[in-house]
Hints:
The protein is mainly alpha-helical. It contains eleven helices and no strands. The N and C termini lie far apart (40 Å).
Amino acid sequence: MLTLYLVYLAASAAAIISPGPGVVMTLSNALRFGFRPAFYGILGISIGTIIVGYLSVTSLGLLLAGSETAFLLVQALGATYLIYLGIKLWRRGIADIQTDQAHRGKPLQRFIEGVLIQFTNPKLILFFLAVFPPFMLQSQQLGLSLHLFVLSYGGLLILVHLGYALLANRAQRWLHSDVGRLRLGRVSGSIFIFFGLLIAWSAF
């Protein structure tokens, strides 16, 4: 069981570390708002991941995996949300940058954005559906294994994203100027739009 669990953690870490919308959101929050607001976003991403993990082994998860129409709908929602976030960041002018400080006091907004970005991530459901069966079928206690695997993934995600946030927070000194922060918003926005278009393209 220990060997099985360690292999699962390695597979999960590889999936979490790889660049994706969640990583981009953590980096963007840490660079724009600082470490603490980014932490609330990380919690949202983790909670969203845990919920999706449990849903993936229910009839809803199987429906999304087995129904092309349902899966395309989730992909469309995910692509739309990412493109919306990207355009929102891209359109920020220099005058709007000063409002970043006001948004520091909105942890709930960071948290909700983190949850939503995972709810609209169809690839996350497919990851759990692909990874869970091989590991859980080798376990003698399916219920316990499910909780262990899902919660471990959520906890590991927090640790990895905290590392990303700390690195990004240290880079803030290069972004004190309005121009630097404007460029950051446009780079982050472009990446969100890219991921959104990529999800939309994969649906066809």
